[in-house]
Amino acid sequence: MVTTHNRPDTSPKGAGGLTTFAGVLLFIAGVLDLLRGIMAIAEDDVYVSTPNYLFKFDLTSWGWIQLILGAIAILVSTGLFARATWARVVGVGIAGLLIIANFLSIPYYPLWSIILIALYAFVIWALCVVRREP
């Protein structure tokens, strides 16, 4: 008896599901980064001060960076919902930048930063594993 190996489903339905998954995660994480940026701009007491951290940033400027990257992530997620190819490419790039930004902010807000790094890693995975939609 000859056995055949079934290949994973690469139909547009499968690709659409992963793209939607990435869009939802990018939207949620973008909103969370946007809110984090607002907290930093308002100089909220949520952030801890770490005097011996190598990468020191002014809290207000760090807030603007988080706010802008979060807003871009939200805009890109709307492109992912529309299945735009540009949004998949930009989504991987913005998720990568946000992983770096959250890595740099680990000492200020450790648990939250690690959670967002994981969310953005899932976004990159979901955008990279699907094949080009017809």
UniProtKB/TrEMBL annotation:
It comes from the Bacteria. It holds the Pfam family DUF7144. Keywords: Membrane, Transmembrane, Transmembrane helix. The chain crosses the membrane at residues 21-42, 62-82, 89-106, 112-130. Residues 19-132 form the DUF7144 domain. The keyword Transmembrane applies. This is DUF7144 domain-containing protein. InterPro entries: DUF7144.
